[in-house]
Design goal:
The complex is a heterodimer.
Chain A (H helix, E strand, L loop, with lengths): L23 H14 L7 E5 L14 E4 L5 H11 L4 E7 H7 L1 H10 L4 E6 L2 E2 L5 E2 L23 H8 L3 E6 L3 H13 L4 E6 L3 H5 L7 H11 E3 H5 L10 E8 L6 H15 L1
Parallel strand pairs in A: 1-2, 1-3, 3-4, 4-8, 7-8, 9-10
Antiparallel strand pairs in A: 5-6, 7-10
Helix pairs in contact in A: 1-6, 3-4, 4-5
Chain B lengths: L6 E4 L9 H4 L6 E4 L2 E4 L10 H5 L5 E4 L2
The chains are: A alpha/beta, B alpha+beta.
């Protein structure tokens, strides 16, 4: 049966602003299905974003939403979570917003292990501002600010999150649409800072400059590079060259969660009076 | 029991003509008609929902009973 997306969409907001073939819409559908699966109440769910194409997402979804300054989704969301620890706080944003402008906030939220879910749509570029290269743009790729090829090596976002101390890290792609909601469900259920990176396509500012003839070619690329974690165990380093692992990459449940730890600090401070 | 045919609804108001549904349909059910996607061969549809899942624009609904 067709999925009823309308129940989580603000009336009259569709069609959205994203370009034809942009994967952000696919991720938004995945998020809506995940919210439906977990039966999240609209008044108990906060969707926070910064600035960028991907950060337009909360505008379409009918729950508590906050559209903040560039790269500052994490601090605003931390404020919500600290004030109302019972809320489900979900952050959405792009790779530039999350890892460059908000990079410092991102790694420190990972370190704190505060119970939030960060969905990063990695399309390798700053789409909205005109296709400048981001920290996730692969070496050699063209952007409006690197017309002769990007000399920088790109971030491996998942490894960055694991290294910084996030306790749940997963990766999916816009092509593997039916996996997106499952990863997001698991991330929301996880108590601690969860990062879900979704590899995305930007046909307008990235594909056009990097010799992708169409959205279909970009989607096929996502299909080809993605290797599920389990399948990768049986593959050699040679076979894994140029591939990207997908699925749940890291999960640990030992590290204490920040809001719970902070509640203990409050208790200790009250007792010391 | 006779198999009930699914119905595919394309909301042209939302469709941006990106072709994702047409290209990734495993049974070649859809085609482009001008700017929009349209149903070509509904008999072949196996209700795998891939078009609905991958449509970034909320423009396809596969309705099964």
């Amino acid at each position: 049966m067709a999925y009823d997306y309308e129940k989580y969409i603000r009336p009259g907001k569709l069609p959205h602003i994203w370009c034809p073939g942009c994967g952000h819409g696919i991720v938004m559908k995945g998020l809506i299905r995940a919210m439906g699966t977990l039966n999240l109440k609209k008044e108990e769910t906060a969707l926070v974003s910064g600035i960028g194409c991907a950060s337009r997402l909360p505008g379409y979804i009918d729950c508590c939403t906050l559209h903040t300054a560039h790269g500052r989704a994490v601090p605003f969301a931390t404020g919500i979570k600290m004030a109302r620890p019972e809320m489900n706080v979900i952050l959405v944003g792009g790779d530039g917003d999350g890892t460059a402008i908000g990079g410092n906030h991102f790694i420190h939220a990972c370190r704190r292990n505060i119970d939030m879910t960060y969905i990063i749509m990695n399309n390798y570029i700053y789409g909205m501002t005109g296709g400048q290269f981001s920290p996730c743009t692969p070496t050699g790729d063209k952007a409006s600010t690197t017309p002769y090829g990007n000399p920088d090596p790109g971030f491996d976002l998942a490894k960055l999150a694991i290294g910084a101390g996030a306790t749940f890290v997963a990766r999916g792609t816009a092509f593997h649409a039916n996996q997106i909601d499952k990863l997001i469900v698991e991330a929301i259920q996880h108590k601690g800072f969860s990062v879900v990176e979704i590899l995305d396509d930007c046909p307008t500012t990235y594909g056009r400059r990097n010799k992708y003839k169409s959205v279909i070619e970009m989607m096929n690329r996502l299909k080809e590079i993605a290797v599920p974690v389990k399948a990768a165990e049986k593959m050699t380093a040679e076979q894994l060259k140029g591939k990207v692992l997908t699925g749940v990459l890291y999960k640990e449940e030992i590290k204490p969660e920040y809001t719970a730890e902070y509640a203990k600090v409050i208790e200790r401070a009250k007792a010391a009076k | 029991m006779e198999k009930k045919m699914p119905r595919i609804e394309i909301i042209e108001k939302y469709c941006k003509g990106c072709r994702i549904c047409v290209e990734f349909c495993p049974k070649d059910v859809l085609e482009m008609k001008g700017f929009y996607a349209s149903v070509k061969n509904i008999e072949a549809c196996i209700s795998c929902m891939q078009c609905e899942l991958r449509c970034p624009d909320f423009a396809i609904k596969v309705i099964t009973e």
